[in-house]
Amino acid sequence: MTHATGMKYMKPGVLPHMWCAGCGIGGMMGALLRAFEELGYRNTDTVVVTGIGCTGKLDDYLLTNALHTTHGRALAYATGIKAFKPQLKVVVVMGDGDSVTIGGNHFIHAARRNIDLTAIVLNNLNYGMTGGQVSGTTPEWAVTSTTVHGNPEREFDICALAETAGANFVARSTPYLGWEMKEIMKQALEKRGFSLVEVVSPCPTHFGRNNDMKETAAMLRWLGGRALPIEDYRKLPQAERKQHFPVGTLVDRDEPDFNTRYDTIRARATGMNVR
Amino acid sequence: MKAVATLERETRLLQGNQAIAEGAIYAGARFYAGYPITPSSEIADECAKRMPELGGMYIQMEDEMASIAAVVGASLAGAKALTATSGPGFSLMQENLGLAVMGEVPCVVVDVQRSGPSTGLATKPAQSDIMQVRWGRHGDQSVIALCPATVRECFTLTVQAFNFAERFRVPVVLMPDEIVGHMRENVALPLPGEIEVVDRKAPAGPPASYLPFKPDEDGIAPLAAYGSEYVFHVTSSMHGTDGYSNNDPANAAWRVRQLHEKIERHRDEIVLTQSYYTEDMDVLIVTLGATTRAARTAALEARAQGIKAGVLQLQTVWPFADREIAALGKRARMVVVPEMNYSGQVAGEVLKALGPGADIRRVNKFNGTIITPQDILDAMLRPAGAQTQGNQP
Amino acid sequence: MRDSRLEIRIGGTGGQGLILCAKMLADALAAAGKRVAQSQTYEPTSRGGYCNSDLIVSEGEVDFPLATALDCLVLLDRMAVKPSWPLLKPDALVLADTRLCPELPEGNRDVKYRVHHLPLTRSAIELGSERVANIVALGALAAISGMCERKALERAVRADTPKSFLDLNLDALAAGYRLGEQEPALAATAP
Fold first, then answer.
1. Which CATH architecture describes the domain B2-188?
2. Quick check: helix, strand or coil at residue B19?
3. Can B2-188 and B274-381 be said to share one CATH topology?
4. Which of A32, B56, B319, C183 has its CA 20 to 30 A from that of B148?
5. Cβ atoms of residues B101 and B140 within 8 Å
6. Which chains touch B (3 or more CB pairs under 8 A)?
7. For residue C3, what pLDDT is reported?
8. pTM above 0.80, yes or no
9. Is residue A68 part of a domain?
10. Cβ contact B13–C64 (<8 Å)
11. CB atoms within 10 A of CB C22
């Protein structure tokens, strides 16, 4: 049996990629492209939409249709694509800055609208591209280039936000759990409605170095130790939960997606037209 | 065309903003994404009603950044798409409008101009976004902008805006002022087929060799739609003909030049003006939008007083009608430029076109009220060199 | 072109249906082959605050589309007096509501207007809703000025009224016509 490599979706001659050694983006991309392959995605009807930052560079490696957008707005661009042409498979790959910091409002409303997009959020806990500054998902008290005495703000729980806002599918993984991450991505891609996969990822260059985890292995161990399968996480006493984050499928529901609902609007509008 | 013209024509009492929505639909627009803002909201209202009737879509986004983003996304999926807004919303759209320029994405943005700065006078007219339309985005780029003066022009110039957007792969800004946007007039709308409707040029060669940013002879590259057999990349970053990032200086220079040149090359086709009473004129009024109506009345009243005044209306604001103004200005002893802003945004461009020494009379009003024919007459009758009083109290 | 120009303002406050009123009049005039331009001034609120709706009527295309010299002024609130009074043409027709606009400015001795104080809102209240004062005013204006055909105006009212309000609006229009027809033909007088 041959295993999916995802290489058929990659532009020839682009490797090695530009991300730092130990960065989680390459692993995330590998999992996503393997998921594409296992699901039989075609370049012609797949559109990958990216934002700005380390993760936003991902489209440059792909042979699928792609739209590399402005910072924080990827979901809004993707909404236009999907809303107008529902038969396309639209995948939005963003960092934590794009998705829930500068672009937080679009994230909330894409989930509320339950538009049939798959959002992959690579959460590396800081702004890597600009030199490791604090983001909306940097843990409280963590050190970054702009919180040298520790982060006084609390971090967003991206998955909780998506769940509350109305996403049909919410899951979390880490590159520490490579195979599982790909399987979760497949579920998200297959899901109709807004689906989110948060990939909590190492950034040894900035976040790791700033927080006593300079070695990639140290960061991975830290992530691996904090990640708990959702079933185990739920068993923890409240006080201990703060040291962990749940991974796996957190939300799976089947509310009608935006395009399905809009078909009703069209039916009503044309019905009204018959005077 | 003749057969069409003999058909029964429907005359309707229509608001400028409604005419813009109707014009967009006539041009083939089937996607509207927007965020409500005075004084543009009637365009959204009309599109919300009409788009789903036609199998199209109206989607109300969470803000104006998202609105223009969704419009660009839909356009790349093959839609003729528009959004409409006013000052504050237009400011928010600038960054993503820049992507539409960079990615050469056809789309139409309507900026119904209201009084600023900031929230300003939300329900009052202005013509003060003229420079923002041209230069509001960072980086050096070019757009096309059109400005209607009547309800009928709201319709026809919207069709034209889509035609230019599609033909030149560029965002086109339609910039009526609040007066024209909210005015109702009884108009005979063009019948189907009466105005030409242009669609973007699609690629024709083998899909594997499609280069989404390689211009044809006419300077414009064909544009595929997501979901066709032509797979393609669009990026806000500097890119080569294949749409992938490319940081090479020679490539960057070529791209920036090409984005400007594709418009400059076709400038004569794009620059639309209307002349009134200019055959024998020696006083020229250069005007746009609702102010055109005051200028036409002022010209007639001036003629009644023995002053041979004529009017040049700038239907296309950008690229600027510098050659047209220079040609008429040569025959005029005086050029009057009425505009609803403080800075003389049009007058500055007129000065560039005519050169120093021309007797250019600015008429500026920036208190949320329209320039009247009398304001323009007063400027004509002022002794040469006398300064404008700016705004009346 | 200026000779055939007729300028009409319906002034009052936001929410009184001033724009609708002007639209109906515009429709009736357009049906008679006139060219019309309708515009409005309003505050950034949907209800309350000074509001006017202007209609410029012309045989050919309307050039300057806003009011500069009013031939007709309907006042449904005292708030509309101050911004509108300076625009009145000599001999202009003024309809003012007795209840909401009881007092008018002292006129310039040399400038005379044809002023009719009419119980527009009172008639509307008697019909069951103050909200149709705009339609009463429309009927009265049409009756006194004779600017358009009654049938055309009725058609315009029918076209722009939801079914459930149609009877009320047609009654209001008729009431307005009655008020207008009872008025004596006025020579211009200083108010």
1. 3-Layer(aba) Sandwich (3.40)
2. helix
3. yes
4. B56
5. no
6. A, C
7. 62
8. yes
9. yes
10. no
11. 25
ipTM: 0.97
Distance from the Cα of C183 to chain B's closest Cα (Å) equals 31
Q: Where are the alpha helices (DSSP H) in chain B?
A: 2-5, 16-26, 41-53, 64-76, 87-102, 130-135, 151-168, 178-182, 249-264, 267-270, 291-304, 322-329, 345-354, 373-381
CB B76 to CB A67 under 8 A? Answer: yes
Do A30 and A209 touch, CB atoms closer than 8 A?
Answer: no
Q: What is the mean pLDDT of residues B211-220?
A: 97
Superfamily of domain C6-182: Pyruvate-ferredoxin oxidoreductase, PFOR, domain III (3.40.920.10)
Q: Which residues contact A274 (CB under 8 A, 6 or more apart)?
A: none
Residue A77: give its domain's CATH number.
3.40.50.970
Q: Work out how many domains chain A is built from and give that number.
A: 1
CATH number of B274-381: 3.40.50.920
Q: How is residue A207 annotated by DSSP?
A: I
In Å, how far is B301's CA from the nearest CA of chain C? 10
Q: Which residue of C has its CA nearest to B125?
A: C41
What gap in Å lies between CA A38 and CA A34, rounded to an integer?
6
Would you say residue C191 has pLDDT above 60?
no
- Determine whether the interchain pair B293/C1 forms a contact, defined as Cβ–Cβ distance below 8 Å: no
- For residue range B316-351, what is the model confidence (pLDDT) as tens digits? 999 999 999 999 999 999 999 999 999 999 999 999
pLDDT score for B3: 39
Q: Cβ of C36 and B290 within 8 Å? A: no
